[in-house]
Amino acid sequence: MKLIDLNRDGGIGANSLYLQLGELKIVIDCGLHPKKVGRIAAPDFSPLRGVTLDLVIITHCHLDHIGSLPLLLREQPHVPVLMTQPSHMLIERMLHNSAGVMERQRAEENIPDYPLFTHDEIDRCKGRFTPLPYGHAKKFRGLRDEIEIIFHQAGHVAGAAGVEIRHRHRKLFFTGDVLFAPQRVCPAAKFPVDRFDTLVTESTRGDTVRPVGKERPQEINRLIAVANETIQRGGAMLIPAFALGRMQEILAVLDDARKFGKLVDCPIYASGLGVDLCDYFDDITRKTRQTNFPRQILKDLKVKSLPRKLDPGILPDPGALYVLSSGMVVERTPSYFIAAALAGQARNTLGFVGFCDEDTPGGKLLAARSGDPFLFDKINVKTKLKARVEKFELSGHADRDELVDFAVQCKPRAVVVVHGDPPARAWMVQTLSEKLPQTKITDPTPLKPYQI
Ligand SMILES: [Zn+2]
Ligand SMILES: [Zn+2]
User: Fold this and answer.
1) DSSP for 273-284?
2) Which residues does 432 contact at the CB level (< 8 Å), separation at least 6?
3) By the 8 A CB rule, do 67 and 60 touch?
4) Which end of the chain is less congested by CB atoms within 10 angstroms, N or C?
5) Ligand 1 centroid to 166 CA: how many Å?
6) What is the mean pLDDT of the chain?
7) How far is the C-alpha of 207 from the C-alpha of 220, rounded, in Å?
8) pLDDT of residue 36
9) Residues in contact with 169: Cβ distance below 8 Å, sequence separation at least 6, in sequence order
10) What per-residue confidence (pLDDT) applies to 26?
11) Cis peptide before 203, with omega less than 30 degrees from 0?
């Protein structure tokens, strides 16, 4: 197999892999870097010049995996795009939202490249999106070669898939983004117990050790306890959450706590794309049974919307819980406005529940110490960080030891490590080299062709 990582700076960003299996040319995922702007936020598609792709496979609908898909499809006007059924139900909404955000950024931040694609273009591509249920083997024939593809439940988020590809006598496996623990909304990953010639594994948490006593159920209890303490001392709490998956998970967790009388009575705010996606999760729950999120949760929690216009530095409702995107508190998002309004008072809490890139405002808040000056520069709010900042180990990604255990049971001849920051990939490479001394471990340099 020939492999090129098209993600121009590696790491977690514009995830996209080009594969050549015999005569078949395939791209897996086609993301957009969450914190870059303009054309460089997309993968570098230059190795695809003059190449006619046979197939695009999408592992799941987070933007770091689909955010540049219409750009690729513009260059590849006939290629089909394969994804799971839940992803097929989510992908158009996610892409339209992304186009809308880029239109706004063009106006507000004067980015001439934006939008990288239009709503019309998304509508023109959608006929090529093809759903495949989990566990079904689909034969895919190119002109001179064929493969068989099976999607396996990957946990992580609704629709996430690990991808098994069989080509001639070889078997390959791509983990995509994976979580082996069950979440409240999404089941645990169910990966095959089998030998694979090649394994391509994510490595998001390769540099993260889960502290003892911070298992998922304990962390959920701690989240509820911190929310209660905050409200009881007259404060407000922000839980920044990715719109796709994390927001529904947190709302479902709050709903359980409230039903069992564990969560104090207080208003709960949620806004934007994440709330819209609750309807999609309701649909996926009913039609595919691949999630557990009835829309009724919003009604039971009496979820309120944020006011349309937020005044910088002013909290719309003290004494409330705010479950808002973006998860990384990216500039000008609802969570950015509310974080700016909360950060200066000790009675408030910022409760992080997912991955934050260190260069995003979320990452900087996590790194800051109490009393440090903190500038929310895009809305001109300068404050001293006094609010309690908590990180809950509720990541949607597998622990590193679980990734290594899965790799070992695959008994692969080759492993490729992707989707991790450099220290995370380095730990994975080092550990896998020790545990699998006969296996060739590759940490691919972006845009360099590898024969795996
Ligand atoms: Zn993801
Ligand atoms: Zn990802």
Assistant:
1) HHHHHHHHHHHH
2) 404, 407, 415, 417, 439, 441
3) no
4) C
5) 24
6) 96
7) 22
8) 87
9) none
10) 98
11) no
Closest ligand to Cα 64: 2
What letter represents residue 49's amino acid?
R
Q: What is the largest CA-CA distance in the chain?
A: 68
Sheet with 268-270: list strands edge to edge.
268-270, 321-324, 237-240, 349-352, 388-391
293-329 tens-digit pLDDT: 999 999 999 999 999 888 999 999 999 999 999 999 9
Rounded to two decimals, the pTM is 0.94
Q: Which two tokens stand for residue 391?
A: 């990180």
Q: Could you tell me the CA-to-CA distances from 332 to 141, 274, 384 in Å, in that order?
A: 46, 16, 19
| Ligand closest in space to the Cα of 155 | 1
Q: Is 296 helix (H, G, I), strand (E, B) or coil?
A: helix
Identify the segments of the chain with pLDDT beneath 70: none
CA 177 to ligand 1 center in whole angstroms: 5
Q: What is the pLDDT of residue 143?
A: 80
Residue whose structure tokens are 């993968």 = 43
**Matching residue, tokens 């007259």:** 234
Give 136: exposed, middle or buried? Use CB within 10 Å, 0-12, 13-18, 19+: exposed
pLDDT digits 0-9 by tens, 181-217: 999 999 999 999 999 999 999 999 999 998 888 999 9
pLDDT at 358: 87
What distance in angstroms lies between residue 425's CA and the mean position of ligand 2's atoms? 14
Cα(180)–Cα(155) distance, integer angstroms: 6
| Strand, helix or coil for residue 393 | coil
Q: Which ligand is nearest to the CA of 60?
A: 1
Task: Please give all residues whose CB falls under 5 A of ion ligand 2, grouped by chain where several chains appear.
Answer: 64, 177
Round to whole Å and give the CA distance between 305 and 146: 50
Res 322: pLDDT: 98
The partner residues of 269 in beta bridges, in order of sequence, read: 304, 322
